From TrEMBL:
One GO biological process term: L-methionine salvage from methylthioadenosine
Cofactor note: Binds 1 nickel ion per monomer. Binds 1 Fe(2+) cation per monomer.
MF annotations from Gene Ontology: acireductone dioxygenase (Ni2+-requiring) activity; acireductone dioxygenase [iron(II)-requiring] activity; iron ion binding; nickel cation binding
Function: Catalyzes 2 different reactions between oxygene and the acireductone 1,2-dihydroxy-3-keto-5-methylthiopentene (DHK-MTPene) depending upon the metal bound in the active site. Fe-containing acireductone dioxygenase (Fe-ARD) produces formate and 2-keto-4-methylthiobutyrate (KMTB), the alpha-ketoacid precursor of methionine in the methionine recycle pathway. Ni-containing acireductone dioxygenase (Ni-ARD) produces methylthiopropionate, carbon monoxide and formate, and does not lie on the methionine recycle pathway.
Enzyme class name: oxidoreductase
Site (May play a role in metal incorporation in vivo): 101
Binding site residues for Fe(2+): 102, 104, 108, 146
Positions bound to Ni(2+): 102, 104, 108, 146
Organism of provenance: Nocardia gamkensis
Assembly and interaction partners: Monomer.
HAMAP family assigned: Salvage_MtnD
Cofactor names: Ni(2+); Fe(2+)
Protein name per the record: Acireductone dioxygenase
Record EC number: 1.13.11.54, 1.13.11.53
UniProt gene name: mtnD
């Protein structure tokens, strides 16, 4: 379920908006210059190769990148592998990477082909938690304070768009604000 939950930046318990209505989500985010969109979902995307997924979305990608702004387009994917004894460590490592507040020098543009992840956008006095699922496109403007939670059992496929090869590098603020907010797993189980 795609979800937007807006909370006061100083008090996560102060929930101001909670909606899974795509249109409302798009409208609320657009007020802050954040682009939210939907592309058609591929059945069984999780079992498709990254090459096949990029080929499938070639038209959507070309449309989004009409100006040629994004020079590096790839796929990031992680799936649970309970047969691998190192999986819990791999999952925790991947999850911890962007769990603290940071910003990037360029827009963070992601299309979720499958699975889910939550972007937390720290916009002024509020935090917008956006749970993205298969079919969701999110573009977070450069410089926006944010963090990302892939949950305790990371499982997603995302097309990433970069202007520079190192566009994913985060500038961490050192603020531990993320620790005071519900995790992806908690957001999903909230009433
Ligand atoms: Fe980021």
């Amino acid at each position: 379920m795609t979800l937007l939950q807006v909370m006061a930046a100083g008090d996560a318990a102060d929930v101001r908006v909670r909606t899974s209505d795509d249109e409302v989500i798009g409208t609320e985010l657009a007020k802050h210059g954040v682009t939210f969109g939907r592309w058609p979902v591929v059945e069984n995307a999780a079992s498709a190769s990254s090459e096949d997924l990029l080929a499938h979305y070639a038209t959507n990608v070309a449309e989004l990148n009409g100006s040629g702004r994004y020079k590096h387009i790839d796929i990031a994917r992680i799936h649970p592998d309970d047969a691998d004894p190192k999986w819990p460590e791999i999952a925790a490592g991947a999850r911890g990477k962007f769990l603290d507040e940071h910003r990037h020098a360029e827009d963070e543009v992601r299309f979720f082909a499958a699975g889910r992840g939550c972007f937390y956008l720290h916009l002024g006095e509020e935090v917008f938690a956006v749970v993205c699922e298969g079919g969701d496109l999110l573009s977070v403007p450069a410089g926006t304070l944010h963090w990302f939670d892939m949950g305790q059992r990371p499982d997603f496929i995302a097309i990433r768009f970069f202007e520079e090869a190192d566009g994913w590098v985060g500038d961490f603020t050192g603020d531990k604000i993320s620790a005071g907010f519900p995790t992806l797993d908690e957001l999903l189980t909230a009433p």
